[in-house]
Amino acid sequence: MIQNGIKMYLLIAIMSYNLFAGGPEVHINYKEYYKQNARYLHKIWGFDYCLNYTKNMSFNALEKQWVKEKQSILESTSKESLEELKHFIDRYRAKHNLLVICLNLYDSKEYQDEVERIVKKYCKDCE
Fold first, then answer.
1. Which of the residues 1, 38, 75, 99 has the least number of beta carbons within 10 Å of its own beta carbon?
2. Count of domains observed in the chain
3. With pLDDT > 90 as the criterion, what percentage of the chain qualifies?
């Protein structure tokens, strides 16, 4: 019991120190980050969608979640690109078990090619 209390105190102390320590402010150009990582970000979003993590979320709610988690990267993409990715995944998902589908889909050449096609279509200057 005492050890748990000590661990908790240390954790709180470390978190407080980090919170109040400050440090240099880091500014990231999220549009550039998106351009450099568009394929990866679309692949991850598609995997979340495949596992129904985005189910019942409007694009705006999804955008707010990503803004919180990924700090506004999604503002650089378009609703249409995500809709195309959804359509591709829905066709694939109708045929298989959900977890197996999503894992196989993520690694499939067909999925990689579709992400590539969508990114090229909606982000002309992405790497």
1. 1
2. 1
3. 2
